[in-house]
Automatic annotation (TrEMBL):
Spans of repeat PPR: 9-43, 44-79, 80-114, 115-149, 186-220, 221-255, 256-290, 291-325, 326-360, 361-395
Lineage, uppermost ranks: Eukaryota, Viridiplantae, Streptophyta, Embryophyta, Tracheophyta
Domain of life assignment: Eukaryota
Protein name: Pentatricopeptide repeat protein
Pfam families: PPR, PPR_1, PPR_2
Matching InterPro entries: PPR-containing_protein, PPR_rpt, TPR-like_helical_dom_sf
Gene3D superfamilies: Tetratricopeptide repeat domain
UniProtKB keywords: Repeat
Coiled coil: none
Length: 425
């Protein structure tokens, strides 16, 4: 356009600057800003708001603060509510809540009225820091100023009150939200309540929230149902959990791998491995593939029942099907094999970890070292300790305890004494 002498103005430049910011090229955006001055244009508050938002979106909060401060200092713009909201939101998201509060009060001194977005950003940040009383005071302030809160204002306050088990205040706030302010909770707000009540063992209250959701035309999603299934499982009500799975299917909501993982884990905990395996096999009927977490749960269940060789067979089977293990998979198997006195198998498996592109961690080493010690493979344990130390890890409380116990019965064993000293070092 410039080459063809097609007229451009500050609005043309502002659009181009906005595009650069959205493309994560804020450096190009500032180059365009320089061009506006060269052409004699005066950037508008919209142009500067766009640049501030661009800097914040690229996590350049310090540069954004400096840029904003210079704009105010040299009176380049009269900041509007969008300018302040952009800065306040950016400060809150980077954990600078105190600075956001200072800017909030400065905003009022500049005769720029905060709006719902301003209050909501700061309330959300205060709640994330656990400062719920400060958030409630700010909420009261906005009500006094007739600035109407929205669902995003209420949700973080409800969430932190739930986490603190201040149930009476939760009920009052929810009542105010729905009946006084006519603000309809969304599925996220309801999910907060269902999750909080479920984790506190208040299953009836959680089910009551589901009833309110249905009455208000807000339909539970998979997150809601996963939370309820988890609550049923936690209380050992497996029939209720399975009934909830059937409810999900009847409502044409697709279960997720996480849904199945909750059920598989619950049945493994109950030592009902046959049912856990049936549920695992049923994942395919919902078009789902088991995750590494699913396999780890089942391997742990097998090991808990003393079926470590079956666990090893299952491990090789899923590997053959293309499922990749993680370090937790190996630690689960190593622990099971060592516990059931298959230390040679565990040592053999330990040697394959790095072949699968994984790096043993401190816990991995300590599991296999403890297994060697309990099986009186002291020389092998000594070599593993050396390797562990070379990797920058140290023995944990379990390893040290096993060594101390062995020393009490075999105090004169020089290998054990040397090993104990290494571990202490």
């Amino acid at each position: 356009m410039c080459t063809l002498s097609i007229p451009v103005n500050i609005f043309t430049f502002s659009i181009a600057i906005n595009c650069c910011c959205h493309s994560n090229r804020v450096d190009y955006a500032f180059s365009l800003l320089a061009s506006t001055f060269k052409r004699g244009f005066r950037p508008t508050v919209v142009t500067y708001n766009t640049l501030i938002r661009g800097l914040l979106s690229q996590h350049k909060s310090q540069e954004a603060r400096l840029f904003f401060a210079n704009l105010i200092k040299f009176r380049e713009i009269q900041p509007d509510v969008i300018t302040f909201n952009t800065m306040i939101d950016g400060l809150c998201k980077t954990g600078h809540t105190d600075m956001a509060l200072w800017l909030f009060r400065f905003m009022e001194k500049c005769n720029c009225e905060p709006n719902t977005i301003t209050y909501t950003s700061i309330i959300d940040s205060l709640c994330k820091r656990g400062l719920v009383d400060d958030a409630l005071n700010l909420h009261s302030e906005m009500m006094e100023k007739c600035i109407l809160p929205n669902v995003w204002t209420y949700s973080p306050i409800i969430q932190v009150l739930c986490s603190l088990k201040r149930w009476e205040e939760v009920g009052l706030l929810l009542n105010q939200m729905i009946h006084d302010m006519k603000v309809s909770p969304d599925v996220h707000t309801f999910n907060i309540l269902v999750d909080a009540y479920s984790k506190s063992g208040k299953l009836d209250d959680a089910k009551h929230i589901i009833q309110i959701m249905n009455e208000r035309g807000v339909y539970p999603d998979i997150v809601t149902y996963n939370t309820l299934i988890h609550a049923y499982c936690s209380q050992g009500q497996m029939d209720g959990a399975l009934a909830m799975l059937n409810t999900i299917r009847s409502k044409k909501i697709m279960p997720t791998s996480y849904t199945y993982n909750i059920l598989v884990n619950a049945y493994c905990r109950e030592l009902k491995l046959d049912i856990a395996m049936d549920i695992y096999r049923n994942m395919a009927s919902d078009g789902l593939s088991p995750t590494v977490v699913t396999h780890n749960i089942l391997l742990h269940g097998l090991c808990q029942l003393g079926k470590s060789m079956e666990a090893l067979t299952f491990f090789y089977k899923i590997q053959g099907l293309g499922h990749k293990p993680d370090i937790v998979t190996y630690e689960t198997l190593l622990g099971g094999l060592c516990k059931n006195h298959y230390v040679d198998k565990a040592l053999s498996l330990f040697r394959t970890i790095e072949c699968n592109g994984l790096i043993p961690e401190s816990k991995t080493y300590n599991i296999i070292i403890c297994g060697c010690l309990r099986s009186k493979k002291y020389d092998r344990a000594c070599k593993l300790v050396d390797k562990m130390v070379d990797c920058g890890f140290s023995s944990d409380a379990t390893t040290t305890s096993v060594l101390r116990h062995l020393l009490l019965s075999k105090a004169q064993d020089p290998t054990l004494v040397a090993l104990y000293q290494k571990c202490l070092h």
